[in-house]
Amino acid sequence: MTVNALYRDDFYLSTAEAMVTAIHEDGGIELDQTCFYATSGGQPGDTGFLERGDGSRIMLGQTKHGPIKDIIIHVPLEGEPLPIVGEKLVLHVDWPRRYKLMRMHTACHLLSVVCSYPITGAAVGEEESRVDFDMSETIDKDEVTARMMALVNENHPVFVQWITDEELIANPGIVKSKNVRPPMGLGRVSLVCIGEDSAVDSQPCGGTHVSETQEVGAIYIAKIEKKGKENRRFRIRFGTPADEN
């Protein structure tokens, strides 16, 4: 059943009411709507719990997509009880974890502004993220850190604009990733924009983000690894280079 993915329009929504629409044989739970982000585009799915009418909790280990993007499956931890179809629940996202991922995902976008090379891969993590670029040049990680922190401290707004699938197809140049398809197939595509009038950046992305760059906080490039003749992997961490010591 098609789900109303509430997080697409409100990244800061951490709780919501929903009704169970299906239970899979493996225990996966489908709901009529959800604020839980499903694993996609290098960002892990949300964890948290579903609160039942009697106040008991169903703890979730992951949130993932089904065979199509319109299906979102909430996967309980092993041994957790299962609700019944038609049961009403209150959803609670693990907000501290989600917020870290939001900050990190936005940091990855800032890195792609500083390093304007095609992206060949990425993975968002709670403490460290990586972005791979199609590049052969040597670049100083401290210089990259300084330029990223300048964007953080300038406190640019971060917001979403929506375009149609057809508009994206007609403007392929806005896609920075070489290997990952933008989130298409729902009739509209979200552009994550940074800066007034998207002056800093604009790129298709279905992940969750903070509302201004200042929220990212202190970040730095911990390492730049050579992964082939024309591939460089940048590792982003929270904190400062001094934390490495």
CATH fold-level topology of the largest domain: Threonyl-tRNA Synthetase, Chain A, domain 2
- Number of DSSP strands? 15
Q: Give the overall average pLDDT.
A: 92
| CATH-level-4 superfamily name of the largest domain | Threonyl-trna Synthetase, Chain A, domain 2
Percentage of residues in helical conformation? 10-25%
Radius of gyration from CA coordinates:
19 Å
Report the CATH architecture of the largest domain.
2-Layer Sandwich
* Largest beta-sheet details: 6 strands, antiparallel
Distance between the termini: 51 Å
List low-pLDDT spans: none
Strand order of the largest sheet: 3-2-8-5-6-7
- Our count of helices gives 3
Structural class category: alpha+beta
How many domains make up the 3D coordinates?
2
- What share of the residues does DSSP label as strand, in percent? 25-35%
Brief descriptors of the model:
alanine-tRNA ligase activity; metal-binding; single chain; Threonyl-tRNA Synthetase, Chain A, domain 2; 15 strands; Elongation Factor Tu (Ef-tu), domain 3; aminoacyl-tRNA deacylase activity; globular; Transl_B-barrel_sf; 245 residues; Alanyl-tRNA_Editing_Enzymes
